[in-house]
């Protein structure tokens, strides 16, 4: 499922911006289908413009019938009546998604024999301070088993002691949910931490859900701002 909202707050209409001849959302859709990992791929949107672009590319669209505060809310509505065990949420502004990384996320559920993990997501190491301090880059800290402890737009961990070396991880906006956890998310009211940070993954932590993070070295370019789009155009091959 690829949630695709037209009026993004930080970069309006970013999903319809041109990325080397095709809209960003079409590039993301083609990257998802190109992995051949999924039984079905849908774009979930409230936009006529996005629906038309995906249909012209031969893709499948589910129209949102309600207003939503997050992509997870949007796809929870979309999958309510679909038959599925695991639902993967690929953000519409992540056209550089990597097949190996997605396969690792899906593998989490094959290995979870006790069905204890509610969702899995991706993180990648970062070291440049401009990324670590950038509020558009969501950071995640994990325990020793790579379960998420917290997500933030602030630098976490805070480098109070510069002599202590600790890793920094960027959270990549790709999730894999048990369908039941996703439907639970739809019913759970937003709490203050999520509302403050504007990071939907925090809602799961606030309600005690377990998020397994998978580390990858594959570095994509999430398009959150106009400068990211320029980077994507330069990097696209």
What does this structure look like?
- This protein has 237 residues and is α/β, with parallel strands linked by helices.
- It is 32% helix and 22% strand.
- It contains nine helices and eleven strands.
- The strands form three sheets. Strands 6, 7, 8, 9, 10 and 11 form a six-stranded mixed β-sheet that branches. The chain has a three-stranded parallel β-sheet with strand order 1-4-5, sandwiched between helices. Strands 2-3 form a two-stranded antiparallel ribbon.
- Strand 4 (42-45), helix 2 (48-56) and strand 5 form a beta-alpha-beta unit.
- Helix 3 (71-79) packs across helix 6 (179-187).
- The protein is globular, with a radius of gyration of 17 Å.
- It starts with a strand and ends with a helix.
- The mean pLDDT is 91.
Could you give a short description of this structure?
By secondary structure, the protein is an alpha/beta fold. It has helices at residues 24-34, 48-56, 71-79, 99-111, 129-132, 179-187, 192-197, 201-206, 226-235, and strands at 2-4, 18-19, 22-23, 42-45, 60-63, 86-90, 119-126, 139-142, 148-152, 168-178, 211-215.
Looking at this protein, list some descriptive labels:
alpha/beta, six-stranded mixed sheet, three-stranded parallel sheet, 9 helices, 22% strand
């Amino acid at each position: 499922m690829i949630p695709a909202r037209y009026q993004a707050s930080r970069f309006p209409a970013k999903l319809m911006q041109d990325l080397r001849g095709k809209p960003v959302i079409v590039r993301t859709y083609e990257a998802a289908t190109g992995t051949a990992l999924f039984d079905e791929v849908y774009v979930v949107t409230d936009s006529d413009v996005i629906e038309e672009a995906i249909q012209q590319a031969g893709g499948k669209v589910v129209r949102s019938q309600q207003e939503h505060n997050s992509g997870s809310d949007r796809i929870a509505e979309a999958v309510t009546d679909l038959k599925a065990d695991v639902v993967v949420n690929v953000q519409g502004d992540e056209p550089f998604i990597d097949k190996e990384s997605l396969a690792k996320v899906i593998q989490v559920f094959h290995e979870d024999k006790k069905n204890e993990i509610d969702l899995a997501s991706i993180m990648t190491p970062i070291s440049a301070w401009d990324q670590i301090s950038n509020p558009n880059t969501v950071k995640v800290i994990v325990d020793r088993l790579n379960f998420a402890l917290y997500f933030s737009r602030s630098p976490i961990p805070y480098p109070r002691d510069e002599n202590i070396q600790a890793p920094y991880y960027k959270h990549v906006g790709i999730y894999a949910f048990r369908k039941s956890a996703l439907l639970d998310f739809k019913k759970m009211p937003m709490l203050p931490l999520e509302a403050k940070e504007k990071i939907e993954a925090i809602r799961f932590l606030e309600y005690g859900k377990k998020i397994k993070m998978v580390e990858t070295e594959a570095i994509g370019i999430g398009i959150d701002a106009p400068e990211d789009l320029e980077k994507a155009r330069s990097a696209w091959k």
